Automatic annotation (TrEMBL):
The protein's name in its UniProt record: Chemotaxis protein CheW
A cellular component term, taken from the record's GO annotations: cytosol
Keyword Disulfide bond assigned: no
GO biological process: chemotaxis; signal transduction
Organism domain of life: Bacteria
Segments passing through the bilayer: none
Major location category of this protein: cytoplasm
Location of this chain's protein in the cell: Cytoplasm
Record SMART domains: CheW
InterPro entries to which the protein is assigned, alphabetical: CheW (IPR039315), CheW-like_dom_sf (IPR036061), CheW-lke_dom (IPR002545)
Alphabetical keyword list: Cytoplasm
Length: 227
């Protein structure tokens, strides 16, 4: 998965002049604008690059590529899910949507945000990647107090969307699990609310209620948030 991520990020880096990595805060700091702006994220050049990144997501809608892996169709025993937590909710997303799990990165907000779910951009290996809130998209309650356990650390999921990778902050990642297809197929119907379209069902797994996300509808909402 790391190789896929590197290819996607490399494409973004080549299309945008990442001056912040050459002469800016992550480079030799020779940029004359640093005296005025102190940090690259305060510069209009950085903001313009981030805007171009988001414009690319919009253009990519014209070249939609299916992310359904034909090799997964033959898997009738188990299905692979990445299981993660947002607030009190445990959620499962098909692993084919996942590029990788990353440590937490700083999120830089953008002026004139395009949607409430768009948190800003994060610098992933020198490339700007849009950062989205699944909490906002799914309408979740995240009032759960932060865990004091040193073993529980927030992470970021890098998810494959149509226009390129997006970063999603999560409170905890349980891991990637092969879960019996029989159990997933017997999932109970989601509660009827405004966000039921993003949920295929709910199953009891490892003494938890695991909410199974509908990747097609969720990723469609992700793409709308970026355009």
């Amino acid at each position: 998965m790391t190789g896929v991520h590197s290819e996607l990020v490399s494409h973004d880096a080549q299309a945008i002049d990442d001056c912040w990595n050459r002469i800016g805060i992550h480079g030799d700091r020779s940029c004359p604008l640093l005296v005025e702006h102190i940090h690259c994220r305060n510069c209009s050049v950085y903001s313009a690059a981030a805007t171009r990144l988001l414009d690319r997501y919009a253009l990519a809608q014209e070249h939609r590529v299916s992310m359904q892996g034909e090799d997964l169709a033959s898997d009738v025993q188990t299905r692979s899910l990445v299981v993660f937590r947002l607030g009190e909710e445990w959620l499962g997303l098909p692993t084919r949507c996942l590029v990788e799990v990353s440590p937490v990165q700083a999120i830089h907000s953008l002026p004139h945000q395009r949607s409430r779910a768009l948190l800003g951009v994060a610098n992933v290996r020198g490339a700007l990647v849009a950062c989205l809130s699944f909490v906002e998209l799914l309408g979740l309650d995240t009032s759960l107090p932060p865990s004091t356990s040193a073993r529980i650390m927030p992470r970021m999921l890098i998810v494959s969307a149509e226009g390129g990778p997006v970063v999603v902050p999560v409170d905890e990642v349980d891991g990637i699990h092969a879960i019996e297809a029989r159990l997933l197929d017997s999932a109970s119907a989601p509660a009827q609310n405004s966000n039921a379209r993003f949920t295929r069902g709910v199953v009891q797994w490892k003494n938890r209620s695991l909410r199974l996300l509908d990747e097609e509808h969720l990723l469609s909402a992700v793409n709308r948030s970026l355009t």
